[in-house]
Amino acid sequence: MKIIAMIPARYSATRFPGKLMKDLGGKPVILRTYEAALNSNLFDDVYIVTDSDIIFKTIENVGGKAIMSKKEYECGSDRIAEAVVDIDADIVINVQGDEPFIDEVSLSKLIDVFKKDPEKEIDLASLKVQITNKEDIENPNNVKVITDINNLAIYFSRSVIPFHRDQNIDVKYYKHKGVYAFRKQALIDFYHTPITPLEASEKIEAIRYQEIGKKIKMVETDVEAVGIDTPEDLEKAIKYLNKYEF
C-alpha cells in the first residue's frame, strides 16, 4: 500500500495573506511543514501542491517535490485530486500547509484505518476532537460532526449537532479537524462531481463525499494543532518552535 502526503498550499489567505511564506525560525512556514512531513517517515512521498510560483520555487530549491495547480480551487480536495491523477498511490493524506508541527500520532491512526480495512469499505478517514466550551460548540466556524456506533460520519454541520433537547442525557460534541486520508479513487470521484447542494449550503467539502455515497471513518484525537491563521498565531508558533529546538 503506497501512502503519500499532499500539502495544498495557496499563497493567498483572507486573514493572513502570504502566511505560508512567513519566516518561522529561519525557514518559511510551508518549508517547515514540508520537512516535518518528510521527517515523520509515515509517507512514501511528500508533495506540495500550490498556485504560487514563490512557494513552488521554495520547495524545488531544496530538492523537494512541488506541483503547480492548473486551475483555481476553493477546497483542498479538488486541488489535491487534480495533482494526484497521474501519481502512483493507494492512500493520499492531506497535510495542512499552515500546521508546521504535524501530529504524527493522529496521522498514524488515520493510516491504520486503511491497514485494518482489507475489504476496502472505508473511502476516507478524518479526525475529530471533543469540544466542551459553549462558545466553541455554537461557533459556526467550528464544523461539528456526528457519527454512528462504528465512528462512521453521519453528518457535518456548522450548526450545533446534535440538538440537546433532553437535558437529562449527556451529549458529547465533536469538532471536525480538516485532516483527511483518502483512497485515491474517492478523491477522483469527488473531483469529477460538481458541488452538491448540502455542501454548497454548509460550505463543508466533507459533505460532498457523503452526498456521493462515500464512507468516512472518524478518528478521535485530543491533540489541538498549532495552526497559523493570524500574525498572532505565527508568534505563538515561533515560541513553540523555540521551546523544542533550544
From TrEMBL:
CDD domains: CMP-KDO-Synthetase (cd02517). The keyword Ligase does not apply. It is found in: Cytoplasm. It is an enzyme of class 2 (transferase). Its EC number is 2.7.7.38. It comes from the Bacteria. It catalyses: 3-deoxy-alpha-D-manno-oct-2-ulosonate + CTP = CMP-3-deoxy-beta-D-manno-octulosonate + diphosphate. Its main location: cytoplasm. GO terms for biological process: CMP-keto-3-deoxy-D-manno-octulosonic acid biosynthetic process; lipopolysaccharide biosynthetic process. Pathway: Nucleotide-sugar biosynthesis; CMP-3-deoxy-D-manno-octulosonate biosynthesis; CMP-3-deoxy-D-manno-octulosonate from 3-deoxy-D-manno-octulosonate and CTP: step 1/1. It holds the Pfam family CTP_transf_3. One of its GO terms (cellular component) is cytosol. One of its GO terms (molecular function) is 3-deoxy-manno-octulosonate cytidylyltransferase activity. Keywords: Cytoplasm, Lipopolysaccharide biosynthesis, Nucleotidyltransferase, Transferase. NCBIfam families: kdsB (TIGR00466), PRK05450.1-5 (NF003952), PRK13368.1 (NF009905). Activates KDO (a required 8-carbon sugar) for incorporation into bacterial lipopolysaccharide in Gram-negative bacteria. Belongs to the KdsB family. PANTHER family: 3-DEOXY-MANNO-OCTULOSONATE CYTIDYLYLTRANSFERASE, 3-DEOXY-MANNO-OCTULOSONATE CYTIDYLYLTRANSFERASE, MITOCHONDRIAL. This is 3-deoxy-manno-octulosonate cytidylyltransferase. It comes from Polaribacter filamentus.
